[in-house]
């Protein structure tokens, strides 16, 4: 069977998914969530003309020539407006954040004033609007603040709060069930017996899912039997995506696809023209009340993490209503590359941004069990299918690693 090109596999995955439902969350839980609607300001900011300094509110024309002494008639504190009006020859003690008293149009900082009871002497002249933040200078009611599909940052949450929003409409978090499979796997931190390795992928993938705005549910480790896989797959009911890890290839114990098919999954494709990542598959099944996407990732840790960025993160993006492309950069090869085979090769590399164009230096060992090479890579050099050998300095397309 011909291997499916990466772009076609991704297109298929994206076309299979729609944006999830909307829910309102409090600002305290809004960080990293994706807006389901565009958002406008509900109030002006500041909501009133406000003092930017501690000092004295005056009519600027009264202090155009100094020294001059004005009569103190009251005080305006933050949240404690002065209810009277400042008339000619008068001043009001004012503090940062307080509303400007009517009649006053300027604030003189207290360092430039000598107060003696009700007699306040100004040593520095002031202009209109000095140290005043005018109503709506930051934003006015109705101003567009955020776009639908925007992922909320700390700064966004600050702005939303200032703009009168206590909650925000966001897209429900996609739930991703992660199922490790294999008799050799033990939970990380457990001493390794003969032939055993740590089930590292689930933890790397859970981090990818959560950084991308999803909620990861670890289903643990299924053993290489149909019974164990069936049990584990049942635990995934209710998840929007079931990601299986390993058991996808052609070995006698690669039982994940048959187990998923037993559980009602219809596979749309299996095996892609990608290195690492060849045995990846994708399909869907009815699981509980919802239609569940099933993504089978290869067991090799590097393959599983890279494939998660290339396919799972965009799928999560689609469920959340936003695009999450990998940033592509034009670079030159820092080393010669041999001819490529029938799979698009995503080579782990260091990116030197101090040169123009940037230089991408591929790691010597591109084995998909080389977790250290993935961990210290900055980018992936994408080598097209059947590309000829290329000398150092050849132009290449590079994807910046953001996981
Ligand atoms: N005869 C062939 N053998 C293989 C082929 C092939 O085409 N013909 N493809 C190879 C490729 S490419 C890959 S990738 C692997 C992927 O196979 P599986 O998805 O079935 O993965 P496993 O065999 O279960 O595991 C591969 C490797 O990864 C380790 N592993 C598995 N799960 C985890 C986990 N959760 N955390 C950490 N490491 C994990 C596992 O122990 C193996 O070392 O197949 C090639 N073989
Ligand atoms: O293509 Mo397999 O995914 O690592 O080696």
TrEMBL record:
Cofactor: Mg(2+)
Signal peptide (from-to): none
First-tier enzyme category under EC: transferase
Catalyzed reactions: adenylyl-molybdopterin + molybdate = Mo-molybdopterin + AMP + H(+)
Residue ranges of domain MoaB/Mog in the record: 177-318
Tree of life domain: Bacteria
GO molecular function list: metal ion binding; molybdopterin molybdotransferase activity
Single GO cellular component term: cytosol
Pathway(s) the chain acts in: Cofactor biosynthesis; molybdopterin biosynthesis
NCBIfam families given in the database record: Glp_gephyrin
PANTHER family found in the cross-reference section: GEPHYRIN (PTHR10192:SF5), MOLYBDOPTERIN BIOSYNTHESIS PROTEIN (PTHR10192)
Similarity remark: Belongs to the MoeA family.
Protein name: Molybdopterin molybdenumtransferase
Species the sequence originates in: Hyphomicrobium denitrificans (strain ATCC 51888 / DSM 1869 / NCIMB 11706 / TK 0415)
């Amino acid at each position: 069977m011909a291997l499916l090109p990466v772009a076609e596999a991704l297109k298929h995955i994206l076309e299979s998914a729609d944006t999830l439902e909307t829910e309102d969350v409090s600002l305290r839980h809004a960080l990293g969530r994706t807006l389901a609607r565009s958002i406008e300001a509900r109030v002006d900011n500041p909501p009133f003309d406000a003092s930017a300094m501690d000092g004295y509110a005056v009519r600027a024309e009264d202090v155009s020539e100094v020294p001059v002494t004005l009569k103190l008639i009251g005080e305006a504190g933050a949240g404690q407006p002065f209810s009277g009006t400042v008339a000619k020859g008068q001043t009001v003690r004012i503090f940062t954040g307080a509303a400007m008293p009517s009649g006053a149009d300027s604030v003189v900082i207290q360092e430039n004033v000598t107060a003696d009871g009700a007699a306040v002497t100004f040593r520095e002249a002031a202009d209109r609007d000095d140290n005043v933040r005018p109503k709506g200078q930051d934003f006015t009611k109705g101003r567009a603040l955020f776009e639908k599909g925007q992922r909320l940052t700390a700064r966004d949450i600050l702005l939303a709060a200032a703009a009168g929003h206590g909650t925000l409409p966001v897209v429900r978090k996609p739930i991703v069930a992660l199922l490790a499979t294999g008799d050799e796997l033990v939970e990380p931190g457990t001493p390794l017996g003969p032939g055993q390795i740590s089930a590292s992928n689930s933890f790397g993938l859970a981090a990818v899912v959560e950084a991308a705005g999803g909620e990861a549910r670890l289903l643990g480790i299924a053993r290489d039997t149909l019974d164990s896989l069936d049990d584990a797959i049942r635990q995934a009911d209710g998840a929007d995506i079931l990601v299986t890890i390993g058991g996808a290839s052609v070995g006698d114990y690669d039982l994940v696809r048959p187990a998923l098919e037993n559980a009602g999954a219809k596979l749309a494709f299996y095996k892609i023209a990608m290195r690492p990542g060849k045995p990846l598959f994708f399909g869907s099944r009815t699981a509980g009340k919802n239609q569940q996407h099933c993504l089978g990732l290869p067991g090799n840790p590097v393959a599983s993490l890279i494939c998660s960025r290339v396919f799972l993160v965009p799928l999560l993006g689609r469920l959340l209503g936003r695009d999450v492309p990998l940033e592509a950069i034009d670079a030159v090869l820092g080393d010669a590359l041999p001819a490529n085979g029938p799979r698009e090769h995503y080579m782990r590399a260091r990116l030197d941004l101090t040169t123009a164009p940037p230089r991408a230096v591929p790691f010597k060992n591109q084995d998909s069990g080389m977790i250290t090479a993935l961990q210290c890579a900055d980018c992936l050099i994408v080598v097209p299918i059947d590309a000829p050998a290329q000398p150092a300095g050849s132009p290449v397309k590079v994807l910046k690693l953001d996981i």
